[in-house]
Amino acid sequence: MSNPSILILPGDGIGPEVMAEVRKVIDWYGAKRDLAFDVSEDLVGGAAYDKHGVPLADETMAKAQEVDAVLLGAVGGPKYDVLDFSVKPERGLLRLRKEMDLFANLRPAQCFDALADFSSLKKEVVAGLDIMIVRELTSGVYFGEPRGIFEEGNERVGINTQRYTESEIERAARAAFELAMKRNKKLCSMEKANVMESGILWREVVTRVGEEYPEVELSHMYADNGAMQLVRAPKQFDVIVTDNLFGDILSDCAAMLTGSLGMLPSASLGAPMANGRPKAMYEPVHGSAPDIAGQGKANPIACILSFAMALRYSFDQGDEATRLETAIEKVLADGVRTADLMGPEGGTPVSTSEMGDKIIEAL
Amino acid sequence: MSNPSILILPGDGIGPEVMAEVRKVIDWYGAKRDLAFDVSEDLVGGAAYDKHGVPLADETMAKAQEVDAVLLGAVGGPKYDVLDFSVKPERGLLRLRKEMDLFANLRPAQCFDALADFSSLKKEVVAGLDIMIVRELTSGVYFGEPRGIFEEGNERVGINTQRYTESEIERAARAAFELAMKRNKKLCSMEKANVMESGILWREVVTRVGEEYPEVELSHMYADNGAMQLVRAPKQFDVIVTDNLFGDILSDCAAMLTGSLGMLPSASLGAPMANGRPKAMYEPVHGSAPDIAGQGKANPIACILSFAMALRYSFDQGDEATRLETAIEKVLADGVRTADLMGPEGGTPVSTSEMGDKIIEAL
Ligand SMILES: CC(C)[C@H](C(=O)O)[C@@H](O)C(=O)O
Ligand SMILES: CC(C)[C@H](C(=O)O)[C@@H](O)C(=O)O
Fold it and tell me: Which atom of ligand 1 approaches the CA of B225 most closely?
């Protein structure tokens, strides 16, 4: 049997630097744990635009459809701000999500003990925080038609369409309930059913799916209140399910609560492929951070933890994922710190690649 | 000349209780400062539905169009959750906003010195916080057509439309720049121009309006990053301008940073009327809080501060607004506390109406 395949798309900014550290980890698994992967690499985002004039070449898209998992770094940078909307770096990312049909975006917001002081929130509010946000990723206002800027009378109008079918809501909800079953069996669904009909349908479908999961305690919250509650008392949540746009904002809000943006991974999952593995893409929550790119300052942990999620969700290697996560916790407990993690209590300052090396050592 | 007119719409839940305290303050101004108002009262939300079968009667709508200012308490409650979308309490509020054309919703997020410990954020992150969010309030996904739940093939689809014309963006932007000029001359505009064409148009128009305000330092931020930055370092902001839906979420997030939701007022302003005063509605940011309604536990300060905003923005009585705000600060500094403000450091517990009395005393 051939090795499982991984396509690495480092992208822009700090993407290539952090991905280099993931390569080390992948190689370690091949050498030491007999877990070899067939790894290929390609371009996405501004890097793809520079070479191909589009933020994702068709051949790259085709490759992404064939592999067992895609690992993506980050896309975007000021250099590309002037580009037309249709070829902006983000379009490459959105095309991958859409064409791979990655409908369930899993975004853990976890507060690492060694880093609880980093949060702008009081330590007691966030210590031990462990939320999972399930964001619908292939529909909603991100992809709804009609969309565009149109002439209307003597002015222009900007239009986007929020659109959700029952089946789109259902599959995202089901992914969330399944996760809740493996966690603390609490699911909170967020929308604006008091203002938007799409939110009414969302609430109705989530409620219906919930009947299949009687053990899961389901609640509903308006998204504005959700943002408030995340700030006020985030530990009240276990799993949250919400749409593409609310998920974008609420998951970033939740990520920032932990104070360790450089630590947060994500998984975007689709339907099972012929081999039983889900279509999948893994990426850190942080962006391309052009201001620190190329200086060895970036924290590779979010990207390495994204690979841990790949081990768990794509390759059925939950124990190996835990091994990797434990190694990272140990390195942090030892006081090893990239620049973003360096607080008043000090620590051993390391570069991006030194952090990777330390994690390999701890493995 | 006749007295300026105010229509009070207490609404549901704690609305009537907190509004009773505002009445005391209005009466005080008439008796002691020779500032008499013609006050009338009517129903909105669930209270209106109970009487008229609609959340805002046409006669009430007509009255709201005629007065100099509307003061609204809060709408909604579990009792009305089962109602059809078209007659839910919220529709009364949304009808007022839309038909009065109140396009600029001003939501200050201020951290009161005496209450800085209440925030879930670290004191140094929020002490002295003073942000003003300008939320567009009459357009966007709240009102765009088409909207509804439709049959499509063998399933249903929920649709809402995000829609902004140039002139809608322009007038909201102008309101925000004017406020920035009176404050610290810093304006941050938030959208998702990387994903939504309506956001591209938003950014373009705000930038164009900004050319008329060269003294104001204008920046742009994606709304997801905006949510992060509000949590990470809210004091970086002075004025924020954003659309109806992002404004709903981001202003609630900002409100919660202060830790004193029971303290936050808002003003919704439209175009100038014949008498030069803007169309205006004032309401607390907090909701109807059905869980504590009717128990004398509610904090009336947000609603009283909303009246202070009315003094400032509708009645050109900035000094009297400041007098009222100062009286409230004094009462807080004296340790007078409704239940929501009672922290570990203690204080003098008071009921809703005792808090109103204390404020009158301090005036
Ligand atoms: C880069 C951008 C298109 C993307 C999004 O809006 O989904 C990002 O913010 C994210 O959350 O992954
Ligand atoms: C009650 C509801 C319709 C309203 C809104 O969504 O605008 C509220 O959340 C607000 O922010 O004033």
Answer: 9
Verify whether ligand 2 is closer than 6 Å to residue B93 (CB atom). Answer: yes
Which DSSP letter does residue A346 get? B
CB A252 to CB B225 under 8 A? yes
**If you measure from the C-alpha of residue A211 to the centroid of ligand 2, how many angstroms do you get, rounded to a whole number?**
29
Q: Which residues contact A361 (CB under 8 A, 6 or more apart)?
A: none
Q: Give residue B100's Cα distance to chain centre.
A: 15
Is any atom of ligand 1 closer than 6 Å to the C-beta of A90? yes
What does each C-alpha distance from B111 to A241, B36, B278, B298, B333 come to in angstroms? 31, 31, 27, 19, 13
Measure in Å the smallest separation between the Cα of A44 and chain B Cα atoms: 16
What's the pTM value of the predicted model, to 2 decimals? 0.96
- Domains for chain B: give ranges and CATH numbers: 1-107+261-363 (3.40.718.10)
Nearest CA among B9, B123, B108, B8 for reference residue B56: B9
Instruction: Kindly give the confidence (pLDDT) of every residue in chain A, 363 residues in length, as a single tens digit, with 9 standing for 90 and above.
Output: 689 999 999 999 999 999 999 999 999 999 999 999 999 999 999 999 999 999 999 999 999 999 999 999 999 999 998 899 999 999 999 999 999 999 999 999 999 888 888 899 999 999 999 999 999 999 999 999 999 999 999 999 999 999 999 999 999 999 999 999 999 999 999 999 999 999 999 999 999 999 999 999 999 999 999 999 999 999 999 999 999 999 999 999 999 999 888 899 999 999 999 999 999 999 999 999 999 999 999 999 999 999 999 999 999 999 999 999 999 999 999 999 999 998 877 899 999 999 999 999 999
Is residue A293 a known part of a binding site?
yes
